[in-house]
Amino acid sequence: MNKLAALVWLAAVAIGALGLYHVKYEVQRLEEELELEHQSILKYQEAIHILKAEWSYLNQPARIADLSKRHLGLAPLTAKQVVQFDELPMRRRQASGNLPGSTLKAQVAGAPRSTP
Amino acid sequence: MTSNSNRFLRPCGPTVYGPEPLVQLDGTLKQCLEIGRTRLLAASLVFMAAFLVIGLRLIDLSLLQEIKEPRLAAVSRTTALESVRADIVDRNGIVLATTLPTASLYANPRQVLDSPGVAARLATILPGLSEAELLAKLGSDRAFVWLKRKLTPRQQYEVNRLGVPGLYFQHEPDRVYPHGALTSHIVGFANVDNQGLAGIENAFEAKLRGSTEPLQLSLDLRVQHILADELGAAMAEFNAIGAAGLVLDAETGEVVAMASLPSFDPSRPATQSDTARFNRASLGVYEMGSVFKIFSTAQALDQGVVGLRDGYDVSQPIKVARYTITDFKPKNRWLSIPEIFIYSSNIGTVHMAMESGTRAQQAFLGELGLTRAARIELPEVGEPMLPSPWREINTMTISYGHGLAVSPLQVAGAVAAVVNGGELRPTTLLKHDTRKRLIGHRVLSQRASRQMRWLMRLSVQDGTGRLADAPGYLVGGKTGTADKLNGRRYAKGARIASFAGAFPMDQPRYVVFAMLDEPKGNKSTHGYATGGWIAAPVVRGVIERMAPLLGIEPRQADETESVERHLIPVNHKGPVLAAN
Predict the structure, then answer these.
(1) Which string of DSSP letters, residue by residue, matches B211-244?
(2) A interface mutation test: which of B66, B78, B94 has the most A CBs within 10 A?
């Protein structure tokens, strides 16, 4: 009986030691991996930092203005292009006296034809 | 016998005498046993405590502390970004100044084997250095010699590819300004050791050094570009020697744009001329001319010396001592206060200023911050040039902007106070924290401020500032033209043309100031080089381009309700406007 208990304990100790050994090396490996990951994070952070500076450089307003002039044909917005909601003309009423929107056809007919 | 044998077998054990008393101890034995027991107990208690501590610590380490992230790699951070300096960004977060890692090339000549060959190959990679120069450096018998500081990444790659022993890189941080000359007067620059020498870089040296939190300025890069672009175009068109401009938030005093031309490249400050490095907007002081009539008129209206219905006869020039004060375009009749303002009559303004007197003028201009250096976070701030002593004749000339030289920044700050309801706020280059309350100092009554808005709008609608009128944005302002001082005399033909404006005039959001130094009139201006012809169109251009970007809604029905109307005799259009 005593011998059996001792054997069980011995086995437990052996398994424990083996497990501990395993965990220790696993932790070491993971820490190395972590270190590498951190180093690559730092590298990427630095790269992002440099790219931000380059992005800012590429966004020089004078350069953007030049590019837009050459490729887009856009011009600064003028005050005339902005119309307030109140200034929109009223919708033309149908002569037949139909309520606006009663039929799809009426709706289409009532819509303004030319864009401002 | 048994008892005796028992005694021998168990010397310390209980002595058994017959069946009754199972345990009987006599003196020494009992003592001996008791001591043994207590010692055992004490020892086991100590061990138990020790194991308990170890156990608790184990639980603590393995279970409770696990929440913490394991050591960050920041410990191993010995790379190029070690010596940090915070970025400077504009109000929208666009990078204006940043620190990038660069490599500098040095050599250990003792380790370089074939120095003539290496020098020849290096000379093709590094354009700034000649072969002879490199050979001299590599041929020396020192152990350390700089070959070139701050290589470009491509150069570094090429040098690496040579694979020559004895060449090494030193990683150094370098300050980079992606927007170069556009913001150089504000951001400033740092030297090769990354110490700020000018502008914000210098003013916030302590804050920038060792920090990673970017410093956010009030500047809007888009508006800055528009301002510099318009000023540059006008400068080229009218052959001016310089230009300065400002866009100020009328409510908060934030500088949204500040330009001074000609400008310079902040990455090579040493090679730039002093005129280019000079910040005309904050360091330069100029006699502003009629722009000062804004302040003279505001003072007269605020102190109740005159009302909008009053006026003066301006047909007679004013003669004081050996000076004669005349008007640029004489009207030769009685003018109302609005007319004096919109036609920019010197004579009328002098009459107004003389009614309140020298003391009052000094105090009022002081309140507006025009008699002491502007408050701004730049080291380059110009002291105004005041007359000393301040005589009556000075009061007269200062009322129309001569005899007192101030910086454009001071003028813009004072105009903001006049139009924003009468509160002066310190001008600032840092973005305003909207959670903080604005602190202001009342310099003008709300009523006088309202009247001034209307007068400034009128000046653009019908007066000298007509070319500043950006339709839909209710621009108001005042033109200014001043002869430049040449030694002690005024030079003819060398002028400062300026325009100080604000928009939209019913609730001013921004103050825009533009100034050109020594412009020459051309055909398109009929030969005039005045503020109305030269600087006003710049302001109009700036407003037309910046307003849509900053979300200011243009109004088609221009005047009807937006600007307060008064029953004022303005004779130039007959009774129509007067009865309006």
Answers:
(1) --SPEEBS--HHHHHHHHHHHHHHHHHTT-SEEE
(2) B94
Tens of pLDDT, residue by residue over A10-39, are 999 999 999 999 999 999 999 999 999 988
Note whether B82-217 and B224-578 share their fold: no
**What digits encode the pLDDT tens for the residues B150-193?**
887 788 888 888 888 888 888 888 888 999 899 999 999 988 77
What 3-state DSSP class applies to B557?
A: coil
Cα gap B350→B370, rounded to integer Å: 19
| Contact list, A55 vs chain B (CB under 8 Å) | 95
Question: Chain centroid to CA B220: how far?
Answer: 10
Residue A64 domain-assigned (yes or no): yes
* Chain A residues whose beta carbon lies within 8 Å of the beta carbon of residue B544: 76, 78-79
C-alpha distances in Å from residue A102, one per residue of A95, A107, B303? 14, 7, 66
Residues B414, B179, B547, CA angle at the centre, nearest 5°?
Answer: 45
How many whole angstroms separate alpha carbon A22 and alpha carbon B549? Answer: 64
> What is the rounded distance in angstroms from the CA atom of residue B224 to the CA atom of residue A62?
11
pTM of the model: 0.77
Q: Which fold has domain B82-217?
A: Penicillin-binding protein 2a (Domain 2) (3.90.1310)
